[in-house]
Amino acid sequence: EAQVTQNPRYLITVTGKKLTVTCSQNMNHEYMSWYRQDPGLGLRQIYYSMNVEVTDKGDVPEGYKVSRKEKRNFPLILESPSPNQTSLYFCASRPGGTDTQYFGPGTRLTVL
Amino acid sequence: QQQVKQSPQSLIVQKGGIPIINCAYENTAFDYFPWYQQFPGKGPALLIAIRPDVSEKKEGRFTISFNKSAKQFSLHIMDSQPGDSATYFCAAYRPTGANNLFFGTGTRLTVIP
What we know:
The structure holds two protein chains of two kinds. Chain A is mainly β. Chain A has strands at about 5, 10-15, 20-25, 30-40, 40-50, 55, 65, 75-80, 85-95, 100-105, 105-110. Chain A has no helices and eleven strands. In chain A, a hairpin with a 3-residue loop joins β4 and β5. The relative contact order of chain A is 0.34. Chain B is mostly beta strands. Chain B contains no helices and eleven strands. The interface of A and B includes residues 4, 37, 103 and 106 of A.
């Protein structure tokens, strides 16, 4: 089944404890993105990647890192999480040159 | 700067009503306008989309109206059902540029039985 998977789905952590949210897609898509969703603010893009080893900042990149060492994986790294990073996070992918985006199921992160 | 402006933020209608969600954009380079539907606990999924060479597109009970001169487009849900209760996002896509898909802020729709 073609899909975008994220892990974990739920995570509660404490301020300053490094964490990684994994994202993987099995559709051979070139583009991958990370979004955060907050009430009243909609989907805000954190980082995106056009292909392996090519990443760039989205609208709200502060406090986040990403890497794209393989085409299928695009992990989101929070080196020192803070409470304002409590949010619902979505990974997404799409083929290059097309406009339909496929979203993962989301990761709900709480930073205490 | 919000590339796509969406309203209202939330909407409550009775079953059978016709909720309308509106979006506006400025960048004339956009050439594809999708709507995504998100149920609680799920990621957004493509619902319906339109290109600017047509003024309306229907798929089942969902209709997009597009006004190119006003740079506005809207989603209408005919005969709305409680199962349509979800968050709806409009988006706009431009074929050039590295980062080329932009989302509205979302509308939470509740359809009351």
